[in-house]
Amino acid sequence: MDYSLTQLFLIAVGYLLLLFTAAWVTDRGWLPARFVRHPAVYVFSLGVYASAWATYGSVGYAHAYGYNFLAYFLGISGVFLLAPILLAPILRLTTTYQLSSLADLFAFRYRSRFAGTLTTLMMIAATLPLLALQIKAVAESIQILSGRQSPDLMAFWFCLVITVFAILFGARHATAREKHEGLVVAIALESVIKVAAFAGVGLLALFGVFDGPLDLSRWLNDNPQMLERLYAPLQDGTWHSLILAFFVSAVVMPHMFHMAFTENLNPRALLSASWGLPLLLLLMALWVPIILWAGVAEKVTTAPDYFSLGIGFITDGPGAILGYLAGLAGASGILIVATLALSSMCLNHLVLPGRRLRQGENLYRWLLWLRRLLIVGVLALAYAFYTATTEQSLSELGVLAFVATLQFVPGLIGALFWPGGNRNGLFAGLIAGFTIWTIALLLPVLESNWQFEPLLGPAGLLRPDPAQQWHNIAAASIIANTLVFALVSLFTRTRETEINAAETCAVDSLRRPYRWELESETVDDFIASLTEALGPVTAEREVELALPETGVDRVRQRRKDSEAHRHHDRRQPECEHRIEPTPVAIQ
Predict the structure, then answer these.
(1) Hey, how many other C-beta atoms are within 10 angstroms of the C-beta on 564?
(2) Can you tell me the distance from the alpha carbon of 185 to that of 538, in angstroms, rounded to the nearest whole number?
(3) Which of 36, 113, 127, 571 has the fewest CB atoms within 10 Å around its CB?
(4) What pLDDT is stored for residue 576 in this prediction?
């Protein structure tokens, strides 16, 4: 049966309203803190990684490339299995110095505002294919369920709805000092719904198409080529590259960085995630081949990416809606979180550095509306990229994004493990890696959609079968990035500020707090230094709000400074006085 657009629209809005209600109830304090900060909530919130590619694209990828689809799930699972070694240092660093994004981390470690700017711009370029993938998945699923001809209009309306909810989730208030507990709970609920709906489709395939595991086993015995099709692609050896790519790129993606570190409500929950998230992804991965076999057995007419929808049609039950809900949950979760993370990066590293507050301007109101505009801008870019790549499959868009995010890994490794890396090497490495990605992957995709003549001959190698070439391109880009980063860092001067920051960020030094010397000797001096950028009223308010976190009593300090001043007047020798507080973010 076909579903009307009104039904599908109401399901989407109702689902998003459910998530928003969960966030609103949490922010109001109506849920017990022990529940909100429970490790299980954190683990399920990390399920945002399982996007529409996990529910739709993985089935299509398994159809074309067999068990290689497992690389998507095994890569991120490997990262979290090693969480105490790989992720705990990043969490300590971001928590200690209040770094909310990879751009913040790079700007802090390499002591360069331009490092944050370059990272932000390249992260937007790297994430747009992934966001376009989500839009495409939802729009085409609506097209299949409703029987409409073109998904473009559905994609446009879906982007508008997501824009409204992204603003509701992340831009209702001018400032956000605390963790977004409501967002964490809402994304955890999204993962529960997604896993349950996808498992429902899998059960429908197992017991609706087949008559249970025994019948499935008999069908596989009668069709041995189905197992051969899954095993055969492993023989070309590319699965090593696949797992490595997903392993190293998953953490730097803006939505994963945001949920794993920025919104971490309980640092100890990272240990639970080291086994909880792999288990969660395993539960999803188990259903992929079953859905694939059911679709092949029943000769489902939809593309393999959407077998979960086609199975629902042929079983005359709610399976199609379950498949739609699973894809909707995966797509909306990543769109909301990634958009919030990217808009925050744009605000901090593109807009604020070049903007001075005008006299009498209300900073908080300006920040509120600017954050909203940036959310709209990010989603508008994602929709534009979707319209420019309508001919690409979900798998190709996913590959395009993952290879791009690989380019941030050498800089992250340098930040944590190699004090010799410097900003010059970071800039040169990123530019080298992204140049290869642009020439060999991005331009051929745009050419094939816009029907341009090939600009570069070698890039045309990708067109016959992108999945056969992308791992070579990924390897070439990351090797070039790493070599350029290392060589330029070795043969250019590293500034003293970078050396100090490198010692601070080094994994072995994170166990002991590092104190930075400030030129400001008093709270009033600190306010004065902020006044130029924020204005006197805002600077005063922000410092007053931050003082309780530092344990500084402003009145007592003024009295102490006054007594020290009188003592200094009675005695001629001068004594130097410096304050070395722990870093506090002023938002």
Answers:
(1) 12
(2) 32
(3) 571
(4) 38
